[in-house]
């Protein structure tokens, strides 16, 4: 017959289990807060981006050819465009400050019609939009863009 463990040991084990569950809940809540919500990203994309970049991320026709005003049409954000060619830091900056500010800083002689959304969208909003866009790409494209983002 196996003797029953002392009451102090049983209580210690019970408290360790409770502590482990609390730590697990805290870690899960932290991780959830760090993971952008794709539904939220989709809604924000529909509200702020789709009017130019298309509801299906298809962009505007002839997006690689500047219009009569010298402004390039909005490019697609699907795998046929070039969004995935850029890292997250550049994409975030482009959304926050607008295309022209970023292109000017880079010394690129192009005219962008992309407005800045830094006054409208939070960093979390921008991250959610980018997460939604990336979720629409094939795995190979996501992997390439992740590598370009330093991840």
Automatic annotation (TrEMBL):
PROSITE patterns: CYTC. One of its GO terms (molecular function) is metal ion binding. Keywords: Heme, Iron, Metal-binding, Plasmid. Pfam families: Cytochrom_C. The keyword Heme applies. It comes from the Bacteria. Gene3D superfamilies: Cytochrome c-like domain. InterPro entries: Cyt_c-like_dom (IPR009056), Cyt_c-like_dom_sf (IPR036909), Cytochrome_c-type_DH (IPR051459). PANTHER family: BLL4482 PROTEIN, BLL4482 PROTEIN-RELATED. This is Cytochrome c. It comes from Paracoccus yeei.
